[in-house]
Amino acid sequence: MRGPIKSGNLEYNLFMKYSLLFVLLFGWTFSLSESKAISSEITQGDPVAKIVRSIAKADVYETRAYTASHKNTLQQNQNKINLAKVASIEKLTQLVLRHKRAIVRLYAFEALVQKQKNIPKEIIEHVKNDDGMITVFDGNTTVKKPLNAIAAGFLY
Q: What is the distance between the alpha carbons of residues 86 and 130, in angstroms, rounded to a whole number?
């Protein structure tokens, strides 16, 4: 018969390694599922998040609405209208200052200008320095332009 497992014993070391591995894997899996559930809850209940995802997915800025033959641009025009309607000034400001996608920052800035006539100087300076590239569709051609060049037209 064996005695109790003692520290320094090979069996003890293996037991401790496997126990630690189990705890780490279980904790990681639990936290991963929790973060997915929380993020899913936030985005499903948040109409702004849905609009933002759609804007980012299409990844094109349209200069005006087009016919039904250009489905992505029709959707982007609708996204622009919806974003301006649904998003608060605070949310639009967050999107302009912090979103990783230039197209989202541009549409958020356009909506912010529509909703608020006096844009804070810090936001204007931030946008002036934002040179993220945007694909622009004007009905016939697509070109790449920096965000700050497009956004300048919203202010004047």
A: 24
The tens digit of pLDDT for each residue in 53-93 reads: 999 999 999 887 554 455 555 788 899 999 999 999 999 99
| pTM of structure | 0.68
User: Cβ distance 87 to 108 under 8 Å?
Assistant: yes
pLDDT in tens, 99-117: 999 999 999 999 999 999 8
The C-alpha torsion from 99 through 104 and 109 to 110, rounded to 10°, is -170
DSSP 69: T
Q: 78 CB contacts (<8 Å, ≥6 apart)?
A: none
Instruction: Name residue, tokens 């209940």.
Output: 45
Structural element, H or E, at residue 110? helix 102-115
The answer to whether 115 and 92 are in contact (CB under 8 A) is yes
Token reading at 118: 């006096």
